[in-house]
Amino acid sequence: MFAMKKNLQGPFDIIGDIHGCFEECLELLQTIGYQIKRDEQSKYGFQVTNPPGRTAVFVGDLTDRGPNSVDSLRLVMTMVENEQALCILGNHEAKLVKKLSGRNVQVKNGLETTMAELDRESATFREEVRRFVENLPIQLVLDDGKLVIAHAGLPEHYHGKQSKAVTSHAIYGDVSGKTDEHGLPIRRDWTLDYKGQSIVVYGHVPRQESYLSNKTYGIDTGCVFGGKLTCLKYPELEFVDVKAKKIYSQHAHLQF
Ligand SMILES: [Mn+2]
């Protein structure tokens, strides 16, 4: 699915890959002015008040590896349902929807933590998650086209386009199918020859620090690996981050 929301002009608070780091997500949102309460009466268990005029945007990979994927889902589902946030599809959601649809996927690379949590939830909630994830767009074109958001980023010729190649790049990045000695995919840095006018914001590639390259902003700062969770404020283009409370998962290359 694809979402053209050029008329939405922000301001936005774009949040990097959560991967089940619910506590850090809560702390980050509260730091930037969101009020969040647990509320048993509301559909997904939370009540959120945004700072005036602002909309949150989640870049995908909400779940897997971290300690609390279910509350991460409940919070984001609340905010999306109430039009307080937008969320796009990450590769971990792409796999989750396959699993929840009964397709044969390998339950590894963190999916085992999410499935263990979801197995303790009701069948109704699992179905709500499946439907939520199934409907996530793969790219967002916002603010008259001045801002493009995709989980793994997108080169200019894919902005506002729809095809298998666009979907693949948006979810997995510029991958060759080759893996390194740790079994991690080898990706080309597509941002190096980006010459577009639009600002592109993405997650997916965990780094020690957020990464600005030719008007593209990589904001996955490896929270689940013990790094931090980062927000990029738009149009201010200011970063706000909170440190991970612990190392939840080991990354083969990254040390924090
Ligand atoms: Mn990812």
Plain-language structure description:
This protein is globular. It has helices at 22-31, 69-81, 91-100, 111-118, 123-134, 164-172, and strands at 3-5, 12-15, 35-38, 46-49, 55-58, 85-87, 140-142, 147-149, 174-179, 185-188, 199-202, 211-213, 216-218, 228-234, 238-243. The protein has 256 residues and is of the alpha/beta class. The strands form four sheets. Strands 1-7-8-11-13-12 form a six-stranded mixed β-sheet, with no helix packed on it. Strands 6-5-2-14-15 form a five-stranded mixed β-sheet. The model has no long low-confidence stretch (mean pLDDT 95). The site of manganese (II) ion has 6 residues, from helix 3.
Q: Please tally the β strands and state the result.
A: 15
In sequence order, what are the helices and strands, one letter per element? Answer: EEHEEEHEHHHEEHEEEEEEE
Helix content: 10-25%
Oligomer: single chain
Q: Characterize the biggest β-sheet.
A: 6 strands, mixed
The side-by-side strand order for the widest beta sheet comes to 1-7-8-11-13-12
Uncertain regions spanning at least 5 consecutive residues: none
Bound heterogens, unique: manganese (II) ion
Mean pLDDT: 95
The number of helices is 6
Radius of gyration: 17 Å
N- to C-terminal distance = 35 Å
Query: What structural category characterises the helix and strand content?
Result: alpha/beta
- Inertia-based shape: globular
Strand content: 15-25%
